[in-house]
Structure formats: C-alpha cells, structure tokens
Task: structure prediction
Amino acid sequence: MIEVKHLTKKYGSGVAVSDLSFKVESGKIYGFLGPNGAGKSTTMNIIAGCLAPTEGQVLIGGYDICEEPDEAKRLIGYLPEQPPLYPDMTPEEYLTFVGRAKGLRGAELHEEIEYVMDATCIGGMRNRLIKNLSKGYKQRVGIAQAMLGSPEIIILDEPTAVLTTQETVELFKELRNLKEQGYTIVFISHKLNEIMEITDRLTIMRGGRSMGVYNTCDVTKEEISRLMVGRDVILNVQKDKAQPTDVVLRVRDVEYVNEWHKKMLDKISFDVRRGEILGIAGVEGNGQKELVDMLFGFLTPNAGSVTVQEENILGLPQQKLRSKGISLVPEDRMLYGIAASASIEENLISDRSAEKRLNHGPLFNMKAIHEEADRLIEDYTVLCKSRKQQVGMLSGGNIQKVVVAREFSGDPVLILADQPTRGIDVGATEFIRKKLVELSRSGIAVLLISADLAEVMELSDSLIVMHGGKIAAYFEDTSTLTDDVMGEYMLGLKHQSDEEIRRVCHD
Result:
C-alpha cells in the first residue's frame, strides 16, 4: 500500500532523512518511531504530500506522490503532530469544511461527519468552539478529520499525546476495527507500551536513517529503546526515598468556577514540601489544568489562599512569580513555553536577561549570554544547528528540552511540571525524569501533573488523585499503588474520608 524507496530530504547542508526505504502492507497497523529529530515527521509529511523529497520515491497504492499527487492524496488521511484546527469553528463546522475540501457533498458529507464523530466520541461537543475544548477533545477532532473521506491509509502522528488512558483505549478499539475493515494505519508514537500493544510491524529511525524493520512481537521495549537512542535506556524511574522538610507551596480551600459556571476546583487544599515530588493524577477535565493555571497566575480563584514560602502569590504577574523562584514547565509548550520565532538562545535566557552577570546597564554581556546558552544546550542535549537557530524549527522533543533547560536551571524553589514528558522520545523522557528526581533531592519542591499513570506513580513520592474538582485521595507512599486502585479513585468509584485527605496538608 505504501512503498518508500531510497528517500532523502535535505535542508541546506543538513540531512533530515537519508536513503530511507520500507513498505507498509495493506490491513496492518504499522509503527513508526525514533528519537526527537530522527526524521519521522519529515518522512510522514513527504508521504502525505506536504513536502517534496530531495531524492527518492514514495508510492501510495501504486501512485507516485510527486507525479500523481491528487490520486495518491485521495487514499490518505493524515493527522500531524499539531492538528490543523480552526479554533473559532465548532467541530461540526470544521469537519464540514474539511469534508468539502476532500470533495464530499450533501448526504455523503453528512453521513461521513456523523460516522467520524461517533467513532471519536465528539458528538456531544459538536456545537462548542474548538478553542474552548480540552486538549483531549481537540485531538479527537484532529483524528476525526483524518478519517473523513474513508481513506485507505490513515497516518496518525502522536495521536495519543494528549489523550487520557480511557480515551486511548477507545481510540485503539476504533483502530483495530478499521484494521479489520482493511484500512492501513501508520502509527507514530513515543510511547513504547502503545507501540507494543497496537502495531503489527514497525520501523525504527535514528539520525534520519532506518535502524531496521521488525515484527513487533519479535522485539522488546528495551531493544527498541536501544535502537532508538543508541544506548541502553533506563525505562523505570530510580530514586532514593524522599526526605521532605519545610512546606514551600501551601494551598488552602481554593475554589474556581469557569465561564460556564462549572466549579472546576472545589475547596482544594494541599502542601508541597522541599525535597519531595507531589504528583497529581486524574482523568483530564477534573481540575488539574485549572489548578496549574491558577498557581502560575493565568487564572484567579474565586476563593482560597496560595502561598509560596509563606508569601501570598495570588494576583502576582508571571515575572513576579518567577522572581520568587517558581518555574513552570507548561502542558502546551508551543503556546506557553516558547516564543517560536525567537532563537534558542533568546528562549533560554528570557527569564534571566536582567541579571547583572548577563547585562551591564543598557548593554547586554553577549559573551556571557552565549556561554550560558551553549552550556544549557550541552547540558540538556538539545539537538540543534546552533544557539541562533529559530526554536520553532526544532522537533517537539528538542523544544521541550529548551523549555526544561530554562525552567530547571533558574535556581527554582518550586517547579510546576505539567505533562513534562508528553510527546517526547524515551531518551529525552529518561533525562527529564532523572532531572526532576535530582532537583527534588537537592531540596526543590516539585508539583508533577501527568496523564501518564505509570509516570506519575513512579516519579511521585506522594500523590493526589483529583475527581470532579476535588481531591479524591491522598497517598503518602506510592510504592505499593496499582493501576486498578488508582483507576477506582480517578473514575470516582472510591473516595477517601476527609480525615485521610487532610493528611496532605501536613498541619
């Protein structure tokens, strides 16, 4: 169905993809993976007809994507890593627009829209503006548009990056159903558990080259990681027992009602102490996003108090919050983490450019700035051409490394880490997880919010579970927690007593 022959893509003097060849058979789910910057997205953009190759050939159902683009593209549904959504449209309006662009009209268009809405469970959101949807629902809309037109091939680039565990389960059911119907699916993901679960065969890339094509059942996660990164990767978090000391972040009786008059935070109280990682788990939409936004000044609570080192932080601008030693690794790195058109260097020093060591009155100390940027690029293994490169041109994982490098290196007393490893490869994930543990053990307080259940359970020293805007459970020790136990609290099937939950306040 897809045949890639000696594919090469060059950008100036750089080579993104080099002499790549592989085949994707009909009726299979084909995994495509590699570290950030390996050339995966470039390859998929060429296959989808969004980029022209420098050399080589891509055949889609026998059609050459360069010479017969209309025929080839008609066979493809494509969801890029950043879904091409229009925020001021509703899902129904957007799917109508996309469907018409694909040549659908009348009853056929209506039937297709209803089918993809049902398959992705977005029917209940059909009349809401896309900009007001959660990231999970936005992703579902992106998947729905890829399925429009009944393409024979569906390419999904990181489709589960912002989905909850339950949403991922539903998506996998639909993918298996499509496979049984004869569809060919190319599945790109950094999540090895998902790759092992859903794919039949896989291609592993590193440095723009193929590291081999395998039957998924014939390789282990450890072998895949080694081929991706070029070394052994520690997939499980290793950490010493936490020795927390004094309280850094104190949250008491916080309430927040959103614009639709829904109470998203309902009398939330907890402490985060020096030397510990406090995790927050929960199904998306249960108040985690609002909590982080409130802590970093994007939202103002309707009631309650928040202090850092016994000083009130509510109502303070972001610059003032940073001056108090609060760092944020945001969930949406493109929107809140970087200035995409600025250089890597400018992004790295943006929070410290006023420091005396980096400027002399009206003039910047460019030598010191260059040294600072180069040090962070090296320390955090950012794969780039130079510090002057536009940060928005990097892969998603390397953009995340830039964000993390800035936020972790600014002498924080409190780190708010919101989905810090979302959409990044196993090597970068290992690095960031190690850094979080290392920083916490050095005496920094860390609040970790993650939709990756395995991650939040492994990394956290203690753990909050949120449901319905409330704390449903608090676990002082995560070492004996299981997925089943967590799931019961996350879905609201169980709820600890007020006395048990109050322990998180350490009063």
User: Anything to note?
Assistant: The chain has a mean pLDDT of 89. The domain at 2-229 is CATH 3.40.50.300 (Rossmann fold).
